[in-house]
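Example 3.
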Amino acid sequence: MDNTRADSSGSVAHAPNTMQMMSMGSASRRRRGGRWRTFLRNRAAVVGLVILVVFILAAILAPLLTPYNPSQQDLAMVLQPPSAAHWLGTDGSGRDLLARIMFGGQYTLIIGLLAVTLAVLVGVPLGLISGYLGGWCDMIIQRVTDIMLSFNTFLLALALVAVLGVGPTSVIIAVGIGVIPQFIRLTRGVALSLKQRVYIEAAESFGASRASILWRHLLRNAVSSIIVYATLNIGVAILVAAGLGFLGLGVQPPAAEWGTMLSEGSQYIFSAPYVSAFPGLAVFLVVLGFNLAGDGLRDALDPNLRRG
Amino acid sequence: MTSASNTSEPLLSLKNLSVQFRTGSGVVRAVDDVSYELNPGETLGVVGESGSGKSVTVMSLMRLLPEASRPTVTGEALFGGRDLLTLSNRELRAVRGSGIALVPQDPMTCLDPVFKVGKQIVEALRAHDQKSRYSALRTRAIELLEMVGISQPERRFDQYPHQFSGGMRQRAMIAMAMANKPKLLIADEPTTALDVTIQAQILELLKEMQREMSIGIVLITHDLRLVSEMADKVVVMYAGHVVERGDGRTVFDNPQHPYTLGLMSSLPQASGSDRWLRPIPGNPPSLANTPSGCPFHPRCALANDRAECRTSLPVLRAVAGADHRSACHFTDELTPQKQAELTSARRATA
Amino acid sequence: MRFAKYLGKRLIISLITLVGVVLVLVLMTKLIPGDPARVIAGLNASDQEVARIRQSMGLDQPVLIQFGHFILNLLHGNLGTSARTGNPVVGEIATRLPFTLELAICGTLIGIVFGVLLGVLAAVRKGTWVESVVSALGVMGISMPVYWLGLLLIILFAVQLKWLPVAGASTVNSIVLPAVAVGVSLVAVISRVTNSSMIDVLGQDYVRSVRAKGSPERVAVFTHALRNALIPVITVVGLEFGTLLGGAVLTETVFGWPGIGQLAVTSIQARDYPMVQGIVFVFAIMFIIVNIITDVMYTVVDPRVKLHG
């Protein structure tokens, strides 16, 4: 028997206001059809994915795809414009640009991947601890994270490279540390929102430890956000790593890293602009690919992440 | 209640007004074939639950519906002899504010938080008077603030909305609405967001405005008590349709539609013998998915699962007395005894 | 009076932050692999030379003493001596700082003006091709490496078209290309934020009230909606300052623009630690100032926000 006390004005049941209903359409569309289909329906995201696949395959299969050796110099063929023999031309030492870009992709992708993995492995637990424990620990970690976030990733990496020296390892560590604050922020937020639920569930289930409940909830809630953030941040990592390479502080020549190639090529902008244009284009496309794919993942997996 | 005017031409006349939206869930008929009229100096109460289409109807007249939902409006809406729906945007803009003014529902969100209140009232004046100097408009705005009962209007002129209380903000909205002496005021749930004590004051204010300037008021609300106090005429809406329409007194004394009846019996009774009231069972239908036939039949105490109620949409027909219309197949069954039976049956099961 | 109290509180917090930064800086010299003194002395210097340099720079002292020296020197306006050139750090930074500031300010202006323009355009023409184009430009803007963009701009405008100078800061026109390079990523971010903020605001009740009064549409959009929509943009500009500075470092290298960014790069390459320390310190101060300015701007722009004294 439903004894609802009507309020004194005599008003009755409330349905969503017509105006509110108007904005509900897209949400329902998303839930139908599953997350993969939402992603695939997003044309930009698919384009991004395609770009990534192309570059990843080119990097992995590089030895099979090109007859040229990326470090093979040919001083007779220096600074050749794009031609049938050399699709993208040659650089200042006669090396084939296309081959260098393909092999260089290995550096770029591996550095990006490892840096973000480092950031995830360190940042996620830190964020969880910070959010869950609260108090002094949280405050300190938060303050440091704030500072690191406002000093952006590139400057942080630059400062760290100054300390650690040059070379691929330093770049991975520096960029990784630079990206850590993003993940700390993310998982701290998740931990904070889950704290209540964990306490309640722990009280109700007599046996399971708080840690295991937290873990279970975490898996369900945070994994998709972490994946989205990781994808987007690989793009950032690549930009920063190539930037360090451009400044001569990353992977050193004669290695075919794209940033380093850009810096080498900058001396030839008058005579052979393609020597710097193509490696830079490669960086741009790969980062674009990660950004588009990441945005698509975010729309498909967790639209709440879209901040205004 | 004011006396009905004696001019022959109605101030506002809606004929077969329909409003459709295209949303992700399909086509939604928020307003379906609605017709009603208002004479100058009269108050028309439009009553219904959320989602009944009462607000959408008037918003469509002023072309204030959200563009994103791609509304389609058909029918006729005559105001001062012109069909609002066919006016150009420019012509309509001239009507907004000076012919028809709106007092919207939520005073908390209706004022721009980063501009001073006085400036926003001046803006209302400026919209229809590009010639006067700012100082003249400022004086007029301060007069308006005073007129709606805001004390220290000079000081309040320079304050921001967040420095006003809810009741004061609603008064300011009324001042803004009255700034250009409109002939018709649309008050969309003017008291819903306010405390009970403030509600009474705002209503008094509206009544006073009406007396002094003999404007017509369309009062949109889900609160029957308001309607009983203020309205000369009543229109009851459900799921986008008009289900009953007539003189205020008549509809109250003799509701001729089961929905109206249901609304009335959820009012607290003076006798106080029953403290537990029953709202109408069930929920209003989703507008994307209205029931077949009469939209009220799933919740109707009179329907009893009869085929007609389920399959055919009732038309508004005259019932007892001229000008009292109801859209129900079985109004003749609503004798006073039946009415009492239905209301007490619901109360008895409390 | 409340403002003064607020400012005082912020300054104290800033001071603590600065102290933290200095501590980190001093610690870093201990962490550096290799021997800074040897680097400064040169590879051929004898061990005594190296030891002498190490002593004169105070690198053999415990951390706290180094910290104390730094602060002491700081109060005298001395940030150390460059290992590369032998000139005082402060002098070098002071000469170059105005260039970087000029670049940063011009870049920010470009970012705000075009970012807001594009964002408003996309919001007002929502659902049309305009919105898609702006959105696409936005994604591309944040994906674009600033150094590549700089090189492309040089190739196009300086080499091919010869409209603008290639590098350096010699003429008035020199600022154009670098500022554009720095501004592009800011344009992308700001247009995104402005767009979503405008869409949000345009749906608000108070915008409808403006229309209901009979005001023209442009009043509703530009006077009311835009004003409200710009509030979050201020925060974004403050947040993106780091990106701006990073972009400046790279851009100065590409264009040979004589600012502290270029100085930072050459110093790092040359392992000129005193200079790097000085530059990081100056950067930290800049960040703090920008943060305070952003907070204050916020209260100016939004009357609902009050300074917490």
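Residues 1-32 of chain A have pLDDT under 50 and may be disordered. Chain A has one domain: 28-307.
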